[in-house]
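Lab notebook, page 48
Experiment: co-folding of the full assembly
Goal: obtain a model of how the components sit together before planning crosslinking
Operator: M.T.
Materials (sequences as entered):
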Amino acid sequence: MSRQRRVQVSIAGLVVLAASALFLSFSRGTRASEPPDRVIVLTASKYAFRASGEAGGEGGAAGAAGAVGAENPPLRLRAGERVRVVVRNAEEGDVEHNFKIPGLGVHCSKGIAPGEEEAVEFTVPKDGIYTYTCCSHPGMGGRVEIEGGTR
Ligand SMILES: [Cu+2]
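Observation: model returned without errors.
Model output:
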Protein backbone atom coordinates (compact mmCIF):
# COMPACT_ATOMS: atom_id res chain seq x y z
CA MET A 1 0.00 0.00 0.00
CA SER A 2 1.46 3.35 -1.01
CA ARG A 3 1.57 6.22 1.45
CA GLN A 4 -1.03 8.12 -0.61
CA ARG A 5 -3.42 5.16 -0.63
CA ARG A 6 -3.10 4.77 3.15
CA VAL A 7 -3.99 8.47 3.63
CA GLN A 8 -7.09 8.03 1.47
CA VAL A 9 -8.19 4.99 3.46
CA SER A 10 -7.80 6.75 6.80
CA ILE A 11 -9.74 9.79 5.54
CA ALA A 12 -12.55 7.47 4.46
CA GLY A 13 -12.43 5.90 7.92
CA LEU A 14 -12.69 9.31 9.56
CA VAL A 15 -15.71 10.21 7.43
CA VAL A 16 -17.45 6.96 8.42
CA LEU A 17 -16.65 7.60 12.09
CA ALA A 18 -17.97 11.16 11.93
CA ALA A 19 -21.13 10.01 10.17
CA SER A 20 -21.84 7.32 12.78
CA ALA A 21 -21.18 9.75 15.61
CA LEU A 22 -23.63 12.16 14.04
CA PHE A 23 -26.20 9.40 13.58
CA LEU A 24 -25.78 8.24 17.19
CA SER A 25 -26.24 11.73 18.56
CA PHE A 26 -29.40 12.16 16.49
CA SER A 27 -30.93 8.86 17.59
CA ARG A 28 -30.03 9.57 21.21
CA GLY A 29 -31.73 12.95 20.89
CA THR A 30 -34.89 11.24 19.67
CA ARG A 31 -34.90 8.79 22.53
CA ALA A 32 -34.38 11.56 25.07
CA SER A 33 -37.70 13.19 24.22
CA GLU A 34 -40.06 11.10 26.28
CA PRO A 35 -43.27 9.76 24.79
CA PRO A 36 -46.46 11.39 26.07
CA ASP A 37 -48.62 9.60 28.64
CA ARG A 38 -51.71 10.19 26.56
CA VAL A 39 -52.43 10.97 22.93
CA ILE A 40 -55.69 12.57 21.92
CA VAL A 41 -56.69 13.11 18.32
CA LEU A 42 -59.08 16.00 17.77
CA THR A 43 -60.67 16.03 14.37
CA ALA A 44 -62.16 19.32 13.22
CA SER A 45 -65.04 19.16 10.78
CA LYS A 46 -68.22 21.12 10.26
CA TYR A 47 -66.90 23.72 12.69
CA ALA A 48 -66.66 21.32 15.64
CA PHE A 49 -64.00 19.15 17.28
CA ARG A 50 -64.52 15.45 17.83
CA ALA A 51 -62.12 13.32 19.81
CA SER A 52 -60.68 9.89 19.38
CA GLY A 53 -57.99 8.26 21.41
CA GLU A 54 -57.75 8.13 25.15
CA ALA A 55 -59.47 11.34 26.08
CA GLY A 56 -61.02 9.62 29.07
CA GLY A 57 -64.24 9.78 30.99
CA GLU A 58 -67.74 8.56 30.26
CA GLY A 59 -69.89 11.09 28.50
CA GLY A 60 -66.79 13.00 27.65
CA ALA A 61 -64.50 12.43 24.74
CA ALA A 62 -64.50 9.09 22.98
CA GLY A 63 -63.84 6.27 25.38
CA ALA A 64 -62.59 3.69 22.94
CA ALA A 65 -59.60 4.36 20.74
CA GLY A 66 -60.68 5.18 17.23
CA ALA A 67 -64.28 5.88 18.17
CA VAL A 68 -65.62 9.27 17.26
CA GLY A 69 -67.47 10.99 20.07
CA ALA A 70 -69.62 14.02 20.69
CA GLU A 71 -69.01 17.48 19.38
CA ASN A 72 -66.56 19.60 21.37
CA PRO A 73 -66.21 17.05 24.19
CA PRO A 74 -64.56 17.85 27.51
CA LEU A 75 -61.02 16.50 27.68
CA ARG A 76 -60.59 14.73 31.00
CA LEU A 77 -56.95 14.60 31.94
CA ARG A 78 -54.93 13.56 34.97
CA ALA A 79 -52.80 15.98 36.90
CA GLY A 80 -49.15 15.73 36.00
CA GLU A 81 -49.46 13.68 32.85
CA ARG A 82 -47.85 14.65 29.58
CA VAL A 83 -50.46 14.99 26.85
CA ARG A 84 -50.07 15.18 23.12
CA VAL A 85 -53.03 16.53 21.19
CA VAL A 86 -53.05 15.94 17.46
CA VAL A 87 -55.40 18.37 15.74
CA ARG A 88 -56.60 17.25 12.33
CA ASN A 89 -58.54 19.36 9.94
CA ALA A 90 -61.08 17.16 8.14
CA GLU A 91 -63.18 19.91 6.61
CA GLU A 92 -64.40 19.27 3.13
CA GLY A 93 -64.52 22.97 2.32
CA ASP A 94 -61.59 25.35 2.28
CA VAL A 95 -61.63 26.22 6.00
CA GLU A 96 -58.55 26.50 8.17
CA HIS A 97 -58.71 25.69 11.86
CA ASN A 98 -56.35 26.18 14.74
CA PHE A 99 -55.97 25.24 18.38
CA LYS A 100 -55.14 26.82 21.70
CA ILE A 101 -55.50 26.16 25.42
CA PRO A 102 -55.08 29.47 27.21
CA GLY A 103 -53.34 28.97 30.53
CA LEU A 104 -51.57 25.75 29.54
CA GLY A 105 -48.99 27.26 27.24
CA VAL A 106 -50.68 26.04 24.06
CA HIS A 107 -50.81 29.05 21.78
CA CYS A 108 -52.30 29.62 18.37
CA SER A 109 -50.03 28.57 15.59
CA LYS A 110 -50.51 29.00 11.88
CA GLY A 111 -53.79 27.79 10.44
CA ILE A 112 -54.21 24.08 9.80
CA ALA A 113 -55.46 23.55 6.27
CA PRO A 114 -57.95 20.83 5.34
CA GLY A 115 -56.20 17.47 5.20
CA GLU A 116 -53.41 18.64 7.48
CA GLU A 117 -52.69 18.14 11.16
CA GLU A 118 -50.62 19.65 13.87
CA ALA A 119 -49.56 18.32 17.26
CA VAL A 120 -49.14 20.14 20.54
CA GLU A 121 -47.84 18.84 23.86
CA PHE A 122 -48.27 20.05 27.38
CA THR A 123 -48.06 18.86 30.95
CA VAL A 124 -51.31 18.87 32.89
CA PRO A 125 -51.16 21.09 35.98
CA LYS A 126 -52.43 20.06 39.40
CA ASP A 127 -55.83 21.62 39.08
CA GLY A 128 -58.01 24.07 37.27
CA ILE A 129 -60.59 24.08 34.52
CA TYR A 130 -59.37 25.26 31.17
CA THR A 131 -60.89 25.51 27.74
CA TYR A 132 -59.60 24.54 24.35
CA THR A 133 -60.76 26.41 21.28
CA CYS A 134 -60.07 27.05 17.67
CA CYS A 135 -58.34 30.40 17.36
CA SER A 136 -60.39 31.44 14.34
CA HIS A 137 -63.75 30.06 15.48
CA PRO A 138 -64.32 30.60 19.21
CA GLY A 139 -67.50 28.50 19.07
CA MET A 140 -65.36 25.42 18.45
CA GLY A 141 -64.01 23.93 21.63
CA GLY A 142 -64.75 22.60 25.06
CA ARG A 143 -63.46 22.19 28.55
CA VAL A 144 -60.23 20.67 29.76
CA GLU A 145 -60.96 19.07 33.11
CA ILE A 146 -58.36 17.77 35.50
CA GLU A 147 -59.19 14.58 37.36
CA GLY A 148 -58.10 14.54 40.94
CA GLY A 149 -57.69 18.29 40.83
CA THR A 150 -58.68 20.45 43.75
CA ARG A 151 -61.41 22.20 41.78
CU1 LIG B 1 -61.75 26.81 13.36
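Interpretation: Helices lie at 3-32.
Next step: discuss with group before ordering constructs.
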